[in-house]
Design brief:
The protein is an alpha/beta fold and about 475 residues long. It folds into four domains: about 80 residues, Cobalt-precorrin-4 Transmethylase, domain 1 (3-Layer(aba) Sandwich), CATH 3.40.1010; about 110 residues, no CATH class; about 120 residues, 3-Layer(aba) Sandwich (Rossmann fold); about 120 residues, 3-Layer(aba) Sandwich (Rossmann fold), CATH 3.40.50. The chain is built from 17 helices and 18 strands. The strands form four sheets. It has a five-stranded antiparallel β-sheet. It has a five-stranded parallel β-sheet with strand order 10-9-16-17-18, with helices on both faces. A hairpin with a 7-residue loop joins strand 4 and strand 5. Helix 10 runs parallel beside helix 11. The protein is globular and about 90 Å long.
Length: about 475
């Protein structure tokens, strides 16, 4: 499978479908982050060196014992030496893999950097040169040419020395690290190109008059640590990419069922006996509906009860299951949920079911009980530490390669600090709301921005405002 320049948004629909169902994904080192973002959580990820016997052997071994195996390569499959070498070898072994095309890296580089080399005003012929590792060699690059028009590649590469011609070296096309370095007529290429880079030779006027769109994105070049559970990080990560940032996935928590599922199962079976059911997270909704299904029930079990949701994301999770929340407070914190219920109903003697995370703050059940309600608090799930790759993240923080660490709950703060520590190397701390921000401060972190609306879209807006103000 070709992965183009290694950017999730530029995968083909077929590539994304297969990655979402693959049991094993073998990838180049440069595509490790892409594989983590797109492959399903249960998939086994294996790093291999492109074009080597080890890559071929690992792919063949996985294919013989697994339902769905993806070999993920940069660029297109048969347009690169490594991809062609591996594909031919796998066919020779009788495996006959499906070949999924990918966007050639050098063509992506043109569009992503806005270099105009065709059409009126382009200044004559242009040459694209993709830098590619020699299959099976020590890694020293060789140049492989791809022409925009059919003229001889060697002649057009030599044209870089002609008056009015120039060469651009494009690194990291489509990533927050995208860079374009220009060498004028007769000047050497700015630095030794590495595999994955692209050389563009065209008129100097065309190369200097680029259509800069990708690099003008509001978060271009920023690296943002996403601490949400892996299963919930996709939307935030996709938004960061759309704004030009690099999402650095570090799921600080993992959502797991309670050690004793019986109380939640019993509560789901008896849901019709409650006056109110209060949900304080989308995770709570998901776990409660699983318990309903296991009890042989569905949304009709809540036909007698009124339902409250702490915020719009939780309300949306309910709506997707056929329930419209009766109460969604203006501020998305426990205190506001309690105040909204107290203002709208006499809670004395009312039976209230509260399925939520273990270790949640006690302010909500205490306020409801003080109003006379009979509160049944049920552990619906637990947030447990999931701090893999902590050492790698610490190194990036120490090297000041991270711009933002984003927290979406108090548990992500606590588990992040436990795994990584409080030395963020100058990275900004962004929090989804005041409760999360207070947890961050108590953990020894300096909070730079808090979302005005305590939702993921609110956090996204806060990030845009913060960096826009810094730019000004």
């Amino acid at each position: 499978m070709g992965a183009g320049p290694g950017v999730r948004a530029l995968l083909t629909v077929r590539a994304a479908e297969l990655l979402a169902s693959a049991d094993v994904v073998l990838h180049d080192d440069a595509l490790a982050a892409l594989a983590q973002r797109v492959a399903r959580a249960e998939a086994r990820l294996v790093s291999v060196r492109p074009g080597t016997p080890a890559a071929i052997e690992a792919t063949a071994a996985a294919a013989r014992g697994t339902m769905c195996v993806v070999r993920l390569l940069a660029g297109d499959v048969l347009s690169t030496g490594a991809g062609t070498h591996e594909a031919v070898a796998l066919f020779a072994l009788g495996l006959a893999p499906e070949l999924v095309p990918g966007l050639p890296v050098e063509h992506a580089a043109l569009n992503l950097t806005g270099v105009v080399v065709a059409g009126e005003g382009a200044g004559g012929e242009a040459l694209l040169v993709r830098v590619e590792g020699e299959p099976g060699a020590s890694g020293s690059p060789r140049l492989r040419t791809e022409a925009v028009d059919p003229a001889e590649a060697a002649r057009r590469l030599a044209a870089a020395a002609e008056p009015g011609r120039a060469t651009a070296l494009v690194r990291g096309a489509g990533t927050p690290g995208q860079r374009v370095e220009l060498a004028g007529a007769g000047e050497p290429v700015p630095a030794a190109p590495e595999p994955g880079a692209t050389l563009v030779t065209a008129s100097e006027e065309a190369l200097r008059a680029r259509l800069r769109w990708f690099e003008e994105r509001p978060l271009f070049g920023r690296a943002v640590v996403v601490t949400r559970p892996r299963a919930q990080a996709a939307d935030f990560g996709a938004w960061l990419e759309s704004q030009g940032a690099e999402p650095v996935l570090f799921p600080a928590i993992r959502v797991v069922p309670p050690p004793d599922p019986a109380p939640l199962a019993r509560a789901a079976a008896e849901a019709h006996e409650y006056d109110w059911v209060i949900f304080t997270s989308a995770n709570g909704v998901e776990r409660f509906w699983q318990a309903l299904a296991e009890a042989g029930r569905d949304a009709r079990a809540l036909s007698r009860a009124r339902v409250a949701a702490i915020g719009p994301a939780t309300a949306q999770a309910l709506a997707e299951r056929g329930i419209r929340a009766d109460v969604v407070p203006e501020r998305y914190v426990a205190e506001s949920v309690a105040a909204a219920l107290e203002a709208g109903d006499d809670l004395a003697g009312k039976r209230i079911l509260l399925p939520r995370a273990a270790g949640a703050r006690e302010v909500l059940p205490e306020r409801l009980a003080a109003a006379g309600a009979l509160v049944t608090e049920i552990e619906a799930y637990r947030s447990v530490p999931d701090g893999g790759a902590a050492e790698e993240l610490r190194l990036r923080l120490a090297a000041r390669q991270i711009d933002v660490v984003a927290f979406t709950s108090s548990s992500t703060v606590q588990n992040f600090v436990q795994a990584v520590g409080t030395d963020l190397g100058g990275a900004v701390v962004a929090c989804i709301g005041p409760i999360t921000a207070e947890s961050a401060r108590q953990a020894g972190l300096i909070v730079s921005l808090v979302a005005g609306e305590h939702t993921l879209p609110g956090l996204q807006a806060a990030l845009l405002d913060y960096f826009d103000n810094r730019a000004e």
